[in-house]
Structure formats: structure tokens, C-alpha cells
Amino acid sequence: MPNRCFRPDPPEYTDFSFFNIVSQMPDYRLAFNLNRSAGFNLKKISDLVVYTGKSPVQCSTYFYYDDVFRINYFLIKNYNSPGILVPSLKNIDYFLLADGFSNHRSPTEFIRHIRAIQGILAVMQMPADKMKEGKYIIEDLEMHLMCVFDS
């Protein structure tokens, strides 16, 4: 008999964008380079715990709020010590999530800035509804933020 767990279907998140990043840099180095070249101020927050099935995966997470465009940015590592956050995307090293990215004035220029960073091999934008695990990651991220910023 298959092992099943009940997880209600979360609401659709239409204003989130996933930017899949391929890079061999450690997470702290990538955050530093994004801060320097894209004008971010990513800061390390406590690890995001995502419940994927068998065991929870603790993901290294960075956060930045752009108060000009009102966009929340999250840098989340895909490969972590207990496992992979999104096993179907094994070739992706990091996810840069943008909440409110429709407010950005030039998405193509944004991607061009990220691609120009030395050490980043590829950047691809993916809508949250195209990744089957996306809405669960976003739901866990929102719950995590309530705990992080309440304390």
C-alpha cells in the first residue's frame, strides 16, 4: 500500500515568479554578487523547512524587500544537506522567487543583470503555476515568514 499524506491544495499564487539559477557558487557568495550587481540587499534568514513527503528539507534562504517596486525577493537553495527541494529540477541550483514581480518596470533588464554576474551559468524565468511544487513552496515560505518576522 502506498504511503500517502494529506495536504490540502493551496490557493493559486499568480503574482509570484520563479527565476531558476544555475551556478556553482555557494549561497552566501551568490547573495553577495546579487547584492552588488542587481542592487539588492539580500540577508540570510533562518532556514526554510519544506515538507516534501518522507522528510522535511531545510533550505538555505535569503530575503530582500524592494520598497521602490514593492517586491519581496527570496533566494532559496535547491540542493541542501537533507535532500533536494525540487527533485524534478535537479539541474537548478537556486530559486530566486519574486513576490509582486508584475510591479517591476523591466523584467528583461532584470534578467540581463543577473545573467551578467560572473559565475552564473543560466537564468530562466518560470511562472509559479508551471512548477507543480511551486505553490507548496510558496505556502511553506509564507508560513515561515510569519514565524521569522513575528519573533
List the helices and strands and how they pair.
Elements: E1 16-23, H1 27-38, E2 43-51, E3 56-66, E4 71-77, E5 79-80, E6 83-84, E7 94-99, H2 107-115, E8 120-127, H3 134-150
Antiparallel strand pairs: 1-7, 1-8, 2-3, 3-4, 4-7, 5-6
Structural class: alpha+beta
What is the C-alpha radius of gyration, as a whole number of Å? Answer: 15 Å
Query: Low-confidence parts lasting 5 or more residues at pLDDT below 50?
Result: none
Mean pLDDT: 82
Largest sheet strand order? 2-3-4-7-1-8
SSE string, helix = H, strand = E?
EHEEEEEEHEH
Q: Biggest sheet, in brief?
A: 6 strands, antiparallel
DSSP helix fraction: 25-40%
Can you walk me through this structure?
With 151 residues, this protein is of the alpha+beta class. The chain has one domain (26-150). Helices cover 25% and strands 35% of the residues. It contains 3 helices and 8 strands. A 6-stranded antiparallel β-sheet has the order 2-3-4-7-1-8, with helices on both faces. Strands 5-6 form a two-stranded antiparallel sheet. Strand 2 (43-51) and strand 3 (56-66) form a beta hairpin. The longest helix is centred in the last third of the chain and has 17 residues, at 134-150. It is globular. The protein starts with 15 loop residues before the first strand and ends with a helix.
